[in-house]
Amino acid sequence: DAGVTQTPRHEVAEKGQTIILKCEPVSGHNDLFWYRQTKIQGLELLSYFRSKSLMEDGGAFKDRFKAEMLNSSFSTLKIQPTEPKDSAVYLCASSLVGYEQYFGPGTRLTVL
Amino acid sequence: QQQVRQSPQSLTVWEGETAILNCSYEDSTFNYFPWYQQFPGEGPALLISIRSVSDKKEDGRFTIFFNKREKKLSLHITDSQPGDSATYFCAARTGGLSGKLTFGEGTQVTVIS
Question: What is the DSSP letter of B63?
Answer without folding.
Answer: E
